[in-house]
Amino acid sequence: MISIKNELHVISNGKLSLEEFLPIAADIHPFVTAIHIREKHRTDKEIAEWVERLLDHKIPSNKIIINSRAHIVNEYNLGGVQLSGQQGSPNNTKEKYPSLRVGVSIHHLSEVEDYQENGADYLLFGNVFETTCKPGLPGKGTNLLEEIIEHASIPVIGIGGIKPSQIPELLHLGLKGIAVMSGVLEAPDPLRAVKDYYEAIKGKHIPQG
Ligand SMILES: Cc1nc(C(=O)O)sc1CCOP(=O)(O)O
């Protein structure tokens, strides 16, 4: 189930309790490349508890990505850390934790070169489309996305308002994967929803026959 070439990341929304999030994560993990713990309001201790409970629920450690807390990623040997643009250069993080996979969230073309030269392993670009998660911010659109992909020598993952039906078009532009929050976590049936994303992602790239 994990042999898809392109990546599907599901990002926690900061609204669910751990008890609400765990059964969803346990259901969806076979269909995703990564589950991001993006719980900015929680303490390190709470994030560590999330990690331990996810591991108890058999979520593979290499699928867990944590927003900004590189020391927790390092402590539990997880899949990676997701930095926002304001959190310094990826190389600073790698100096401290050399084996960490570091993704950086970007929002402008001008950031591409900076972060890839400074050690980012991939770029998360958004918001591609309008999304309720970023109220008031218009989507940056597929033209800018295409420019970002052209300039980047490392994988670009798209985020923001992405629906399964838009995935073929985005992959066609050269996107390496997509990340989704509400489309899965606010769906009436998150497992059904993640399968729709999974089918759309694998549809184009799994060799047929
Ligand atoms: C967490 C996040 N980061 C974004 C960025 O542009 O960097 S957009 C976003 C929210 C994505 O949520 P949904 O899939 O529900 O649109």
Bound molecules: ligand 3NM
Total DSSP helices: 9
End-to-end gap = 16 Å
As for the number of domains, it is 1
Class by alpha and beta content: alpha/beta
CATH class: Alpha Beta
Q: Largest sheet, if any?
A: 8 strands, parallel, barrel
- The CATH topology turns out to be TIM Barrel
| CATH architecture call | Alpha-Beta Barrel
> How many beta strands in the DSSP annotation?
8
Structure overview:
The protein is of the alpha/beta class. The protein has one domain (7-205): Aldolase class I (TIM Barrel), CATH 3.20.20.70. The protein is built from 9 helices and 8 strands. Strands 1-2-3-4-5-6-7-8 form an 8-stranded parallel β-barrel, surrounded by 6 helices. α7 links the parallel β7 (156-159) and β8 (177-180). Mean pLDDT is 94; it is low at 204-209. It binds the ligand Cc1nc(C(=O)O)sc1CCOP(=O)(O)O. The ligand Cc1nc(C(=O)O)sc1CCOP(=O)(O)O binds next to α8.
Topology:
Layout: E1 7-11, H1 18-28, E2 34-37, H2 44-56, E3 64-67, H3 70-76, E4 80-84, H4 90-96, E5 102-106, H5 110-117, E6 122-125, H6 141-151, E7 156-159, H7 167-172, E8 177-180, H8 182-185, H9 190-205
Parallel strand pairs: 1-2, 1-8, 2-3, 3-4, 4-5, 5-6, 6-7, 7-8
Briefly characterize the structure.
This protein is 40% helix and 17% strand. With 209 residues, the protein is an alpha/beta fold. Strands 1-2-3-4-5-6-7-8 form an 8-stranded parallel beta barrel, surrounded by 6 helices.
Q: Which features characterize this protein?
A:
209 residues, alpha/beta, eight-stranded parallel β-barrel, 9 helices, disordered C terminus, binds ligand 3NM, thiamine biosynthesis, isomerase activity, ThiamineP_synth_TenI, Aldolase_TIM, Thiazole tautomerase (Transcriptional regulator TenI)
